[in-house]
Design a protein that fits this description.
432 residues; 6 helices; 9% helix
Length: 432
C-alpha cells in the first residue's frame, strides 16, 4: 500500500495563449465530429490511394475516401487542409510526472478524454526541435524494458498525429509509484503535436480506448488498482481545477489532482453527489438529462455528457447553445470564428446562470468561465459552444472549474461538489 499520497499541482503554462477558434478546431480534430453551425471548418472527404508496391505502386491499388477536417478559406473556394497554426496545440496547464530510474520529470497534459501515456523520446528524429522539452532516454533508465512488437498511434481528424513504440517503466504520481507502467515513446510527431510545450500526455480515460497494438495496455489508474497501490476504498482520482482569475479568492486559484484519496479541504464540508458512469465508449460518461438557464429548466431526455479535463471548452447541442446566448444581451453567432460571442463589457449580473445535470443534480458554470477568450472588436468568445453532430456533451474546463470532480474508477461513478468562488471576473485579457 502506497504511503504519503500528495497532491499533484497543475502548473500554468506561461506560453499558453487562449484562442476560441483554435480550441474549437482542436476539439473537432480530437473527437472527429462534424460542425452543424456555419463557418470555415467542415468534415470533408479526402481520397487516398492505396497502391501496390514498386515503381507502379499508384496503379492497380484501391482508392478510399477518408473523412478529414478541412478548411474553406473563402465561401466560394474548395476546402483544403487545416494549417497547424489554426489549432490550439498547447495545454493551458501541465502536471509533473516522474518516469524511470533515476527519475526524469515530464510536464504532461492530464486528459480524462483519452487513454494513452505518451512522451517525447530520443527516438524522435533530430529534425524535431526538442528545445524546452524533457526527452525520455530509455537507455538512461535501469528499469525500462522495451515491449517487443508493440506500437501506438494517435490520429486526429485533420490527419495530424503521433506514433512510436512501447516499453514499461516506473511512473511516480503524487507520492505513488506505479511499477511496470506501459509508456509510449514518441518516434514521430506531426507539426501540430510538436509545437506545444508539454512533454506528452497522460490519459485518464479507460484502457479500452488505448491505441497500443496488437493489444491495448492498462492506464496508470488501472495499474494502481491492479497493484493495490491505492486503498480498495479509494480506487479513484480527483481534479480540482482552479483559475488565474481566482488568485484573490480563499483557495487562491490552486489547481491539482489527487490519486488514491479525496482531498478533505477541497470538499469544504460537503458530501459528494455521485452518479453511475457508462464507460462502454471508454469515457467518463453519465446521464445529463436537464440543463437550466437562469432557473428555467431545459428538458434533455436521453442526453449524456462526458467529463473531459483535456478540453478547455464545454460543448452542448445547438438548441441549448442558442438558448444560452439568447440570455446574454448583444450575444451573436460569428461564422468567421465559428462560435458564439458576446460583448466584452457584459457585467456579471447580465450573465446567465447556466447549469448542467449530473445524474439528477445540476451544477452551474461559474459566470466568469462563460467568457473564454478575446475575440476582437470588444467581443468575447464564449466558453460554451456547439457539439456539432456528436451525440453527447463534452464538459471540459469551462464547467469543471465550478466543481471538485471525483473520478471513482473502482465503483464506476462520477462525483462532484460545488467549488465556490466569492468573486467572479468575466473579463479576458486582450489577446489571451
Amino acid at each position: 500500500m502506497a504511503q504519503n499520497l500528495t497532491r499533484i499541482t497543475r502548473v500554468p503554462n506561461p506560453k499558453y495563449q487562449r484562442s476560441g477558434p483554435k480550441s474549437y478546431v482542436s476539439l473537432l480534430c480530437k473527437y472527429k465530429f462534424s460542425p452543424t453551425k456555419p463557418g470555415p471548418y467542415l468534415l470533408g472527404g479526402k481520397v487516398q490511394q492505396k497502391g501496390k508496391h514498386g515503381i507502379a505502386r499508384l496503379f492497380g491499388g484501391r482508392a478510399h475516401v477518408q473523412r478529414v477536417l478541412q478548411k474553406r478559406s473563402d465561401p466560394d473556394a474548395q476546402p483544403g487542409d487545416v494549417p497547424a497554426e489554426d489549432q490550439q496545440n498547447d495545454s493551458e496547464y501541465l502536471c509533473p510526472v516522474t518516469i524511470g530510474t533515476p527519475g526524469q520529470t515530464f510536464n504532461l497534459d492530464f486528459d480524462t478524454g483519452s487513454a494513452d501515456l505518451w512522451i517525447w523520446s530520443t527516438e524522435l528524429p533530430k529534425s524535431v526541435d526538442a528545445s524546452g522539452h524533457t526527452v525520455f532516454d530509455p537507455k538512461k533508465s535501469s528499469t525500462f524494458k522495451k515491449t517487443a512488437g508493440a506500437t501506438w498511434k494517435i490520429s486526429y481528424g485533420d490527419g495530424s498525429g503521433a506514433s512510436g513504440d512501447v516499453g514499461t517503466d516506473n511512473v511516480t504520481l503524487g507520492g505513488l509509484v506505479v511499477e511496470g507502467q506501459s509508456i509510449e515513446l514518441a518516434k514521430k510527431l506531426s507539426a501540430q503535436f510538436a509545437s506545444g510545450v508539454d512533454d506528452g500526455l497522460l490519459g485518464l480515460a479507460f484502457g479500452s480506448i488505448n491505441t497500443v497494438t496488437p493489444k491495448p495496455v492498462a492506464t496508470p489508474v488501472e495499474n494502481m488498482i491492479a497493484q493495490k497501490d491505492i486503498p480498495k476504498s479509494s480506487e479513484l482520482f480527483t481534479a480540482y481545477l482552479g483559475s488565474y482569475k481566482d488568485k484573490n479568492d480563499p483557495d487562491h486559484g490552486i489547481s491539482f489532482y489527487t490519486f488514491g484519496y479525496v482531498d478533505e479541504t477541497a470538499l469544504a464540508g460537503q458530501t459528494p453527489h455521485y452518479t453511475p458512469i457508462d464507460n462502454s465508449q471508454g469515457f467518463w460518461q453519465f446521464k445529463s438529462t436537464t440543463a437550466s438557464i437562469n432557473g428555467k429548466t431545459v428538458d434533455r431526455s436521453g442526453n449524456t455528457a462526458i467529463a473531459d479535463t483535456g478540453t478547455t471548452l464545454a460543448l452542448v447541442d445547438d438548441s441549448l447553445c442558442q438558448a444560452i446566448y439568447d440570455a446574454i444581451p448583444g450575444a451573436k453567432y460569428d461564422e468567421q470564428q465559428q462560435g458564439y460571442l458576446f460583448p466584452s463589457n457584459t457585467s456579471v449580473d447580465k450573465l446567465p446562470v447556466v447549469a448542467f445535470d449530473v445524474g439528477g443534480k445540476e451544477f452551474a458554470v461559474q459566470k466568469e468561465d462563460l467568457a473564454f477568450a478575446d475575440a476582437g472588436h470588444n467581443m468575447t468568445y464564449g466558453g460554451i459552444q456547439s457539439r456539432g453532430d456528436l451525440s453527447f456533451d463534452i464538459l471540459g474546463d469551462t464547467w469543471l472549474k465550478a466543481i471538485y470532480a471525483i473520478f471513482d474508477q473502482g465503483n464506476k461513478r462520477f462525483g462532484a461538489v460545488v467549488r465556490t468562488d466569492p468573486t467572479q471576473d468575466p473579463s479576458v485579457p486582450a489577446g489571451q
